[in-house]
Design goal:
This protein is mostly beta strands and 115 residues long. The protein has one domain. The chain has no helices and six strands. It has a six-stranded antiparallel beta sheet with strand order 1-4-5-6-3-2, with no helix packed on it. The termini are far apart.
Length: 115
């Protein structure tokens, strides 16, 4: 199938894989688990120290046959310039409907100092 782009090109679609799923969407976010604040004499924050970075990944996909991962298993996801390789599954959610495909959402967390 040929494509033509007019205007500014943008990333289209999902170029990502997770073993056992046909990936339909994903969300990656990073945050600090610790934020230590320093306040002055009137309670205004004048410095902040961040530590313990965490990266969270949620992948939603269709299941071709069966999905065999479990909470605590390692999860790797690569695609669209993202490499999530050190995370462990913290939640698995299954959704089904009468006239639709079964969907699985898998959430994993990668802790900065745990390999």
């Amino acid at each position: 199938m040929s494509t033509t782009t007019k205007g500014t090109a943008h990333i289209y679609g999902i170029n990502g894989t997770v073993t056992g799923l046909t990936v339909q969407s994903y969300t990656v976010s990073s945050s600090w688990a610790n934020a230590d604040e320093v306040t002055n004499s009137v309670g205004e924050v004048i410095a902040v120290r961040y530590s313990d970075k965490r990266t969270n990944l949620t992948v939603e996909g269709l299941v071709p046959t069966t999905y065999g991962a479990a909470i605590g298993d390692a999860l790797t996801f690569t695609g669209n310039g993202i490499a999530f390789t050190g995370g462990h599954i913290t939640q698995i959610e299954e959704r089904g409907e009468a006239k639709g495909f079964m969907r699985i959402s898998v959430t994993a967390v990668d802790f900065e100092n745990i390999s």
